[in-house]
Amino acid sequence: MVPRLNPFAAAPAPMQSWMDFGKTILQSGLEESLMELVKIRASQINGCAFCLHMHTAEARKKGETEERLYLLDAWRESPLYGPRERAALGWTEALTLVSETRAPDDAYAEVKEQFSDEEQVTLTLLIVAINGWNRVQVGFRGVHPVEKRQAA
Question: How many whole angstroms separate alpha carbon 4 and alpha carbon 44?
């Protein structure tokens, strides 16, 4: 894959504003592990290898297990995710695929049950942010770092 454009070099001020927005959301008080799962799940749906590489590595650093990362795409069929995570992942899917789902009432009801009003807004803005990053990276063909491995 060949990168198309470096958005940070082409438009540093808007990209800095976008980064600042994202940093503010990350300091919102939501659980770090939950935020990483949300970012990974949206990135899976959007096919963003750059963000998947970044956020799976970050999740591992924060103590996330390999098993939960491997099974995230099938979270509905796994008992490894708690009610709050399930609500957040359902809302992530609903908003990431909003043109198809129209943010259904059942997904919102689960979020409302698990998150305060302020947390619902914060979670929604987190989903907005990661979907935006996915579009920047996929659109401009951002390439994740590649570690060269040797045969055992």
Answer: 21
What CA–CA distance (Å, rounded) separates 11 from 145? Answer: 22
Question: Rounded to whole angstroms, how far apart are CA atoms 12 and 96?
Answer: 26
Q: What span, in angstroms and rounded, lies between the C-alpha atoms of 36 and 62?
A: 9
Alpha helices, DSSP H, located in 11-65: 12-26, 32-46, 49-61
Q: How far is CA 147 from CA 53, 107, 144, in A?
A: 11, 38, 10
Residue 118: its pLDDT value, please?
97
Q: Is 131 within 8 Å of 42 (Cβ atoms)? A: yes
Structure-block tokens of residue 62 = 């924060």
- pLDDT, tens digit, for every residue of 33-67? 999 999 999 999 999 999 999 999 999 999 999 99
- Please report, in angstroms and rounded to a whole number, the separation of the first and last CA atoms in the chain: 27
Two structure tokens written together for 112: 């409302």
